[in-house]
Amino acid sequence: MASRQPSTQAIKQLKRSDLVAEEIKRLITDRNLAPGDRIPRESELQVQFEVSKGTIREALKSLEVQGLITISTGPSGGGTIAEVPLTRTLQFMQNYLFFKEVSIDDIYKVRMSLEPDLAAGAVPHLTEADFDALEHSIACCDPNHGHADQLSQRRDDMNFHDLLAAANPNPFLRFTCELINEMLRELTVFGNRTPQAESRKFGERNTEFHRDILKAARARDADRVRQLMVEHMADASISVKRLKGRLQGRLILDAETTRRRSAVSTVRPPGKTAARSGAK
User: Which residue in 10, 118, 132, 164 is a FRET match for 173, CA 20 to 30 A apart?
Assistant: First the structure.
C-alpha cells in the first residue's frame, strides 16, 4: 500500500523567528552550554543567522517565554541560559489540558502507579541529610505538634514526597512525580464545608504513613517502602474523595495566580471560601 503523503496544510509553517530560536537551541547544545552561561550577543547572532535585529529579539523573547533563557538589558545585557522551573512546566501543561477534563481521581491513579517505584528507588541513595530533612518535614506537618495552620500543613505535606523524588536517580520518573506534586500543591481545593476534624484526621494519617516510610527507608528496606507507599496513596485517594477534593477549575490557572488567590483566602473568615491545600 502506498504511503500517505501529508498535505501542504498539515505541515506547520514556522516563522523566521521560530527557526532562529531552534538554531539558537542547537547552538546551545553544540557548545555544551549550561544554566548560567551566556549566549552570543544580539549583534553576533544577527550576523551569524543573517536576519534582522527584530527577528533576533523575537527569537530570544520566545526562548525566554519557554524558560530557557533570561534576558537582561544594558551595556552588559544579553541572554543567559536558565534551567526551566517546574512552575513554568506546570503552566505549559495547564495550557495543554485546557480543553481536557482531568479529575483528581485521574491524577491519583497515576500517583499510585509511580510513587511506590519512586520511593523504593530512592532508598539506596538517601543520605543522613535526606533523613534529617524527611524528619523535619514530618515534624512540620504533624497536626499534633506543628505550629502552622492545617491549610499550610497539608500543602507542605508534599515536601516529603519531593524529598524522596530528589533522591531517585531516574530523572524522568523524578520529574514526572515532582510535576504531579506541584499540580496537587497548587491546584487542589477542598469543599468549603470540610469539618476541621476530618482535615485533622487526614493530616494524622499522612504523618503516620510518612513516619513508617521513613523508618523503613532508614532500614534500607526498599520493598517495605514500596508497600507502604502503595497503602499511603490508596488511603490518601480515599481521604481526598471524602474531603471533596477537586482540581481548581480545569487546570487553567497558572501557579502564580493560584498562589495569590491562596494568600487572599487565608485572611478571609472561615466558610467564606473553599479551603485550599495541596492534596496528599
Answer: 132
CA dist list (Å): 114 to 102, 103, 254, 271 = 18, 17, 24, 35
Q: 253 by DSSP, 3-state: which?
A: coil
Could you tell me which residue, 211 or 152, shows the higher pLDDT?
211
| 274 vs 16 pLDDT, higher one | 16
pTM: 0.70
Residue 232 sits at the vertex; the CA angle it makes with 230 and 234, to the nearest 5 degrees, is 70
**DSSP code at position 248:** S
* Distance, CA of 237 to CA of 218 (rounded, Å): 26
Q: Is 219 exposed, middle or buried (0-12, 13-18, 19+ CB in 10 A)?
A: exposed
| Count of helix runs (H) and strand runs (E) in the chain | 12, 4
Do 219 and 131 touch, CB atoms closer than 8 A?
no
Nearest Cα residue to 66 out of 50, 77, 79, 47 = 79
| pLDDT over threshold 50, residue 7 | no
Q: Which three cell numbers stand for residue 118?
A: 519512586
